[in-house]
Each structure stands twice: as C-alpha cells, then as structure tokens.
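Anyone? Bumping this.
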Amino acid sequence: MQSLRIYNTLTREKELFQPLNPPYVGLYVCGPTVYNYVHLGNVRTFMTFDVLVRYFRHIGYQVRYVRNLTDVGHLTGDGDEGEDKIGRMARLEQLEPMEIVQRYTNDFHQVLEKFNFLPPSIEPTATGHIVEQIEAVKSLIDKGLAYESNGSVYFDIQRYNEKGNDYGRLSGRILEDLLTETRDLDGVGEKRNPLDFALWKKAAPDHLMRWPSPWGLGFPGWHLECTCMSTKYLGNQFDIHGGGMDLKFPHHECEIAQGTGLNDVQPVRYWMHSNMLTVNGQKMSKSLGNSFLPAELFAGSHHLLEQAYSPMTVRFFMLQSQYRSTLDFSNDALKAAQKGYKRLMNGLRLLRDMEYIADEAVSIDPAQVEEVTKAVEGAYEGMNDDLNTAVAIAHLFAMVKKINQLYMQQVRPAQLGEEVFTRLKNTYVTFLADILGLKEERNESFEPLIDGLLDLYRGFKSEKQYDKVDQIRSVFKQNGLVIKDLKHRIDWAYEE
RNA sequence: GGCUGCGUGGUCGAGUGGUGAGGCAGAGGCCUGCAAAGCCUCCGACGCGGGUUCGAGUCCCGCCGCAGCCA
C-alpha cells in the first residue's frame, strides 16, 4: 500500500497517515448550509475530499465518507447571534423552511454531479438528528461542562480547560488572549463567559424551526450537529475531519471541545483544511460583485467571464493547484486550463485504442523506460505528499507526451517493453478517470457521424479537392474538433 | 490590533538548503497543398531590506502586500 502523508492542522506538520482500523478509513467533511446556491469555494473544498476518497479507495482502503447537510442552527452571524440562515430565507421567500432546504439541496446535488463528485457514504442532516443532539446536551450538563441559562444551554469553556483541555489549539489561539479581547464586550447576556458557545438555543415565539427539549422549545447550536453525526457514524474517535479553512475557528474548535467533553477522547486524528478562492487576486465575495455561481461559470453568464467553462475544465483547473494554496480565478487561467484539460483528454482517446505491438527487431530502450517509470512514480509521489494533485498532473503531462510519441510512431511500444507499456497505459487511465475524476465531455452517439465525415474528408483529400477539404475542416472546428493529418493516418481530436 | 497562511518567470501554478517542475502564452525547427495537432529546441522567476551558511526561492529577523478567522 502507498504511504500517504497528510498535513494535519492540529500539529501543523505533514504526518504519515495511519488509520485507526485498517483497511477502514473514517472521513467526515462539513457539508453546506443549504440556504442558497452552492458557492464555488465550497465546491473546491468538496473536490479536495472527493479526490482524497478516490485516492484512498485506489490504494486499497475502504472509506466511509460522511458529509452532512446543515438544515438548521446555522445563524447569520456564524455565532450565537442572529437569525437562522434557513429560517431567514424561508421568511423572505415566504416558503416553508424545508422547501428552502429541499431546493438548495437539489441544486447542491446537481452541481456536484456535474463536477463528477462521488456521492458520500452517508449524507446526514441536522434536523434528522435532533434526538442525538438533545442527548449530547444532557450528557454535557451531567459532566459539568454545560449549563442552562434562560432556556438555552451553553458550553462552559473555562471548565473545559480547567479539566486539562486546550481550547484554541487547532486554530493557534490562546484562551487568555481570547478572554482579554472579549472582556469588555457587552451582550454576554446569558453566558457566563463570552467565549462560551450555544449547544441549544431557546426559540423565540416567531422562530419557525423548533423542537421540544428538557429546556423548553428550541433548536440545536450549529456546532453540535457535526459532533453528533460524525461520532454516530464514525465512532467517538475517527480518522479524518475536513472542511474549509474558514471553519477552523470557531466551528472545528467547538467540535473538538464537544467531542472531547462527551467521550473523553480527541474526536479527530487528522484535521484537513482546504484553502480559499480569489478572483483576479481579490477575495470572492458577493459585496465585491466578483462572486459567481457554478451555473454562471458553465454558462459564461457573469460579467467577469469572457466565455463559458465546462465542469471538467473547472475541475481540472482546481486540481492544478494544491488544496492548501489559495487559488485565483481569472479568464486567462481558465482558458489555459481548458487547453490543458483537452490535451489530457486527447491523450486518453489515443491510449484507449493503443495496443502493445511486439517487435523482435526492436530492443528495449533504457532511456525510454526511465522516462515512463519516472512519470508513473512521480504521479504517486505527488499524491502521497499531502495530495499534491498539481505535481501528479505535471507527471500526467509527461505521460501524455510519451503517448503522443507512440501515436506518432516516434517511439515504438517495443522500446518500452510490454510491462512498462502496460504500466503507462494503466496508470494514465487510472489517474485521470478514477483518482482525479476527470472524464471526457462528449456525446458518444455522434462518433459514427464524425467518422463518416472523416471518410468524406479522406476522399476529397486524395482527389486534391482542397476547397471541400477546407470546408470539412471548418465544420469540425465549429464543433470544437480538429482534423489531424498524419503521415500514417487521418484522425480527429479535441481542439485545444 | 491579535492568530494562521501566502507572496515564484508574460500568466496560472509545484517546489522548501546544493543544476529539471508542469500547463498556457512567446520564438525557432520537423511534418503539411496550406494549416492544425503532435514531436524537438529555446526563452525565462523566486515581494523588499538585512542576517545565518561553503551554498537560500527554500532557514532567521524586519518591512510591504494579499487571504482566512477573531476582535
């Protein structure tokens, strides 16, 4: 099995990944709050973990991938104040909260399918786990780590730390500093300490989503659902927890506190955080007007976009950077990605029809063998080094060059030998399709039509009817395809 | 203001003590009816100022800029 190293936010180091119960891997990723169309930044996060799951499975692990949907409890202030995000949308659009949830859940699934994401093993919802959350609150109160105040229940951070825990470790925050910073703030109200966070909130009379509890009608705090659902399906301690960088504090910090408080064990062994997106060097935000939706990207319908970019182009584009780096969206970068993506896909098409040809007259060329071996091993080394898809892709380009050389008969399969040839073929196809999740975007039913046109082209070409030849070329071009006139054959490819 | 991370060639983007990233763009060549595709060759960088080292894009200090979280 490959040895994968993962950057653990908790230790700020790359660590060798060792699962608790091999060959099983438990992975939990914070899913979206379904109150609006899915944000491109979220897409990047889920893509990171999509590739992680794919790679784990490829190297022989059995993954249980849990990605939740937040459908209650996430407030507009991202803290304990403000309106429920879903409740707010329901009020504005005069719909049932669950109508909002369903609408944006559907959108979320649709978008992810376009990007060729694997479905999670379990996709639990917060409202589906109210009972578990109430039980968790009770347990935390029993343990002296939480207290009721005016119908709400809060986690007692000071008590938690007095018991030898370290609230703030994940995000590099010092409790004393946090206390100093927040001391003079008013609005503490029901809390003993301004840093304490809500486990259960009392519902105001006009609050739409509420459930009965030992503390009256209310709803769960945002952080609690992830603790309950992750430990329910993956155990009190599990392998990996992922999410966007923005969730490190306070969300994930609170999850650690809740999980540790409940089960006396650190809930997560490896914390992984993916970085943010920028647009033309600036952060992507609605107020700056530079935030576009996946659908706008596919349609090219945003004023900052010069053209449409297909889902696979965007997928390839995102994977060309390492997940812990910020990634900048711009037209030039996306156009470059489109060309690069098509180059890889053309290689895939060629390779599919390529068979090994034995040739006694040709001996194995060590230099050729080494080039292929280096590319294959390099691709794995990239993935093993904290999921460095950028490095893996660089080696795929080395492979596509070799594929083209074989196709152009500049290199003979026998120069590689059957074993190395097969290794090249398998690795290339596996990396693109299975690990990176990149697939051809085409309509296969049109292929006979393409072949028919190509026959006509051949005929005109041999008759030197160049006006007809050029005409057919232009038809291909209009459809994003190019005709390739080679010494030994005539073929087509995606226009890059 | 605090914490965390980043700043690489025309552009996007890997690398993190000792000649190679890679994609896109650009230049030349092979091929071609002309092209395109492909192949070969080339061009070229490490925010600014100090320091450590035989040697730094890579480590340390300061500054500037960008991003995330907190206030």
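Late reply, but here is one note on the structure posted above: Chain A has a mean pLDDT of 91.
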